[in-house]
């Protein structure tokens, strides 16, 4: 399947279909993973999942999955260990995977009590690369690079497969792109240089850690700790990642990371 990307570890293309757009509220109803190995072999893993909440009509209109389709399926927590083992040692890829699929997986794994990513895991977002080259959606990207219409649009397996084929064609056509996951990861995540936590809830700005979301956007972490500690206490009791909670907990104890040295 891959002709142009050099892999030194497996690369897992992920796609999820969901009940909505909010990872902390909505749930995954279908998950597909295309795992490509450095030797060129590949393996699929696909699951329909009972989200434990109703699937809105507007979501069904997109992916075609109804409550009746998943009522007898297993819940995510029953698949969590299987999926975690399947992704162990892999880098991650997909189309819009950084803003959609990964946040949903992180939320589902968090509810299941299992960490999703490790710090050595790299990510290639095919949508970001495509938007760097020519802004379009997945169907247009597939038509442009693969020369044909998608047959299984808005199915997890179809979308994951399309993302893999698009990336391979991007590397073939655009010879200036890096031919390894680390180089593509750097193109997809330039903001990580300023992120304090993987989600970007806090960022570095002029040597200070600054809140990057919500009503206290722009406040430094030190200001939050000294002037609005109740807000940080609320964060500790809310659905934030372990990295964010550790940062907030330490701030309430008067402990702050040292400024990044460029």
TrEMBL record:
The keyword Transferase applies. Keywords: Nucleotidyltransferase, Transferase. SMART domains: EXOIII. One of its GO terms (cellular component) is cytosol. Residues 10-176 form the Exonuclease domain. The keyword Acyltransferase does not apply. Gene3D superfamilies: Ribonuclease H-like superfamily/Ribonuclease H (3.30.420.10). One of its GO terms (molecular function) is DNA-directed DNA polymerase activity. It comes from the Bacteria. It is an enzyme of class 2 (transferase). Its EC number is 2.7.7.7. This is DNA polymerase III PolC-type. It comes from Candidatus Atribacter allofermentans.
